[in-house]
Amino acid sequence: MSFNKSKFFLLALVLIISIGLIGCGGQTAAPQEDTQAKPEVEQESTVVADAAKAYFANMPADVYKIGQQDFVDKVKAGEDMFILDIRSADAYGKGHIEGAVSAPWGTTAIPESLDKLPKDKTIMVYCVTGQTAGQTVALLNIAGFDAKSVNLGWNLGISKVEGVDAITSTEASEYGQQNTLEVNAEIKTAITEYYQGLADVKDTMFANYKISEDNAKKLLDEEDTSVMFLSVRKAEDFAKGHIEGATNIPFGKGMEQKFDTLSTDKTIIVYCYTGQTAGQTVAVLKLLGYDAVSLNSGMGMESTGEAGWINKGYPVVQ
Fold first, then answer.
1. Checking DSSP bridges between strand 168-169 and strand 96-97, what pairing results, if any?
2. Spatial contact of 208 and 195, defined as CB atoms under 8 Å apart
3. How far apart, in whole angstroms, are the C-alpha atoms of residue 99 and residue 140?
4. 3-state secondary structure 109-134
5. What is the CATH code of the structural domain delimited by 65-188?
6. Architecture per CATH, 203-304
7. CA angle 293-295-297, nearest 5°?
8. Cα angle for residues 41, 229, 151 (degrees, 5° grid)
9. For 201-237, what is each residue's pLDDT tens digit?
10. Predicted local confidence at residue 238, as pLDDT
């Protein structure tokens, strides 16, 4: 009887030790798999994230923009630069700045142009009102080009400059032979995916990574918790009046240092004065992983006509 008891305890002890060893072995294997996976993810995001943050960290005094009059003057003077018209092909065909190459927004034309654009010339970009040019200019600079958007685009800016007819053409221009830039593969992929993503929002209220004043007001009235408003206007202008509940991060050099205060689980509706600097901000935020769109025509100014939050008669708070 005592022998059986001893045998029983011996077998039990062996079984307990065996289970313990198996358990310890399982716990050791799992962390090894996690440790191997993490560096790859971090490496893939670092290049793009660093370049996106550098866009604001190294922002020039002109905030990547040029006035419509200055732009027209440079074209008339024959200054050596590259001009990109990102309006629709139809709009381009009806008249564009002479020498401008067409790369319509919303197509694959812009990401495909990365292998054709010059690295040793300033790239001037214009769209209809300046908003999508703002997004494009941010992406081009992040890719390593020297790009600027023309203030207020074609409709509100360029076309209103006196004497612009003299440099307006209907003859298409090509990229030609350029001293091109070898864009980092990860950044190129991120930019390509950025434009491919336009198809996903094409039939939504966030088409072109923008939102109309009316739809933004509707979301505000409904107290929709899936969105938040971000004003990138100057602090003093924000204090004078802003959209209810909005957060303020003034546009300019170093603003990327405050992005970690933004929500990662909401759609961020970014607004400025006319939509152009909001467009730049949206492009950078999206590359950093945020879901962001810009408010059509921003708060609105005299130059935007009836477009813009204030021009629509929508309320602001102090």
1. antiparallel
2. no
3. 19
4. HHHHHHHCCECCCEEEEECCCCHHHH
5. 3.40.250.10
6. 3-Layer(aba) Sandwich (3.40)
7. 135
8. 90
9. 999 999 999 999 999 999 999 999 999 999 999 999 9
10. 98
